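We treat protein structure as text, and this decision shapes the records that our systems exchange. Because each token names a local backbone shape, the row as a whole describes the fold. An entry from our holdings is shown next, in its original layout:
>
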Amino acid sequence: MGSSVDWQETAYRENYEKELLGLRRRLASDLSCTADDLKGTLKNLYIMDGADWGGRGEVQSISLAAAIAAYETIIEELKNL
């Protein structure tokens, strides 16, 4: 794997882990937060992802993709509780 892709994978992984940590902290500290709340945010993230008419750039696209994946992961975890 070339170094031109390494930074992208590193950025994705770091953003994904930060988002997971933030979501887990939110769930632990805000007992009123539900999977439906997270699904609402995820819906908006999907909209943002599809609304790239201005060209957000690769770094922002990676960050958004990582956030979407983190929300999907947490929502799936909540389903399995």
Observations:
- The CA atoms of residues 38 and 72 lie 9 Å apart.
- The chain has a mean pLDDT of 93.
- Residues 3-29 form the longest helix (27 residues).
